[in-house]
Amino acid sequence: MIPATHLHAILIHFPIALILVGFFSEIIALLSKRDFFKKSASYLLLLGVLGVIAAYISGGYAGEGIEEGPLKIPMEMHEDAALITLWIAILIAFFQLVVIYFNYKKLWTRLVGLLLFLALVGAVVRTGYLGGQLVYSHGAGVELALPDFNNPTTED
User: Which residues, at least 6 apart from 95, have a Cβ–Cβ distance to it below 8 Å?
Assistant: First the structure.
């Protein structure tokens, strides 16, 4: 079975990519007024939100047991940022679904959607940065595995 820290490391890259590409697709849609890019942005956003939810849940399991010590404060900062990202993602997904359901095509809905999308991108970037700090600066989830020279393995 895959450890929670590895599963979280696998899952987090999907919402990051989906949300960033969706945001750029939203900008292209706003500038070009092409429906293809607007639909693409919506689908990428909704898939990215599902990825945020999965990443948040797996992160909860990955961070279990780190309630004290040198990782406590960086872990809490990352968790807080992830929670903010989760709520912004849910808010924008709800907003987007309402806009799609009622078929709003007014400029103000596009601009509000773009601003919410920008807030989500910022939250994702901040959460990712703090998660990267946990791993690369603090060594969270890193296991030092030295080779066992006393037990040589034979290769066929």
Answer: 112, 113, 116
Q: How many CB atoms sit inside 10 A of residue 119's CB?
A: 16
The tokens describing 10, both together, are: 């696998």
Judge if pTM exceeds 0.90.
no
The residue length of the chain stands at: 156
- What digits encode the pLDDT tens for the residues 19-43? 999 999 999 998 998 999 999 999 9
Higher pLDDT, 4 or 118: 118
Going by the DSSP 8-state scheme, the letter that residue 151 receives in this structure is: S
Report the distance separating Cα 86 and Cα 90, nearest Å: 6
Q: Any idea which residue has 């919506």 for tokens?
A: 42
